[in-house]
Amino acid sequence: MSDALRDDLSELARLFATHAAWQRELGALELPHEGALPVARPVVEAAPPPAPSIPPPVTAPASAPVVVAAPARLEPPTLVRPAAPPPVVRALFGEPAVAAPAPRISAGPPLQGEARVGALAVIQDEVRGCTSCRLGAARRNTVFARGNPFARLCFIGEGPGEQEDKQGVPFVGPAGQLLDKIIVAMGLSPEDVYVVNVVKCRPPNNRVPEPDEMRTCTPFLVRQLDLVRPEAIVALGRTAVGFLLDSKDSMSRMRGKWHTYEGIPVLPTWHPAYLLRTPEAKADTWADMKVVMARLGIPVPTRGGSASG
User: Fold this and answer.
1) Are the beta carbons of 24 and 30 closer than 8 angstroms?
2) Three-class SS of residue 111?
3) 3-state DSSP assignment of residue 154
4) pLDDT digit string (tens) for 187-229?
5) For residue 267, what are the contacts with CB-CB under 8 A and spacing of at least 6?
6) Lowest mean pLDDT, pick from 24-33, 58-67, 267-276, 296-305
7) Residue 116, class by beta-carbon neighbours within 10 Å (0-12 exposed, 13-18 middle, 19+ buried)?
8) pTM for this structure?
9) Domain locations along the chain
């Protein structure tokens, strides 16, 4: 086949394909074998489906009010916040590095009789075995508590001193002897009250407990207070006040006024060790103890009632 013939056949095929495409656009479904080309069929568009019939609205009786429900309101998600840390002495020691759960006094009835004594003994055994902070490395003895576990009145101090560390009993040194005189002046016996400290081991050189030491040790105190549940607490000194009340106010502003720790009335007053250094403050402490006696219904002695000595 010559090149010219091949080119003519290619051009003819191209023209035929173009003509067939034009016929399809006009609606032709096939090409005739002979005769004239068919007339192009008109393109008939499908009619749109009939609109659905809408039933007439139902008219409520005039006496029946039509209630239209409001669309449901999407409430924002509730943010879950962490428990407030327990009170610490922020004014003196700064914020804790790690927040611990806030202490709570149980809502149920307190344990009675041997059940309370036994529960306190369990905590005391835990304290004896505790080495969770640096104070446990240098102690001679842990110092848990002394007095009556069923007492109406509780005294809370800072931490053990040298004599307390030797004997394993709180407030047995010079400051403790003055505290006993105050208790007797109130018409009570040292065995009538419950006496504890914020920390159970002696800080070196009787320094103020560090924040991490308090965070480690005070859960024991919280459990003690949960079991004893005194009717009133006397907070002796700034460290005890700071733990119980988390206040930045000075002792001069706090003392002699009622505050609250977990529903228990708390009255701050000077620590007996401060009274030994500042004898003129004993009159303040005795005035504070009169406030406590009035709260508990204890008669104020008419004579000999003094914190002197």
Assistant:
1) no
2) coil
3) strand
4) 999 999 999 999 999 999 999 999 999 999 999 999 999 999 9
5) 232, 233, 234, 235, 255, 256, 257, 258, 259, 288, 291, 292, 295
6) 58-67
7) middle
8) 0.67
9) 113-296
pLDDT (tens digit, 9 = 90+) per residue, 135-193? Answer: 999 999 999 999 999 999 999 999 999 999 999 999 999 999 999 999 999 999 999 99
Q: State the virtual CA torsion across 80, 85, 90, 94 in degrees, nearest 10.
A: -80
Q: In the sheet that 146-147 helps form, which strands lie side by side, from edge to edge? A: 146-147, 194-197, 153-157, 232-236, 264-269, 259-261
Q: Interior CA angle at 93 toward 87 and 96, to 5°?
A: 55
**Locus of tokens 């019939």:** 53
pLDDT at 117 over 80: yes
Q: Which residues contact 111 (CB under 8 A, 6 or more apart)?
A: 119, 227
Place of tokens 């003129």: 280
Query: What CATH fold (topology level) applies to the domain 113-296?
Result: Uracil-DNA Glycosylase, subunit E (3.40.470)
The C-alpha atoms of residue 200 and residue 212 are separated, in whole angstroms, by 14
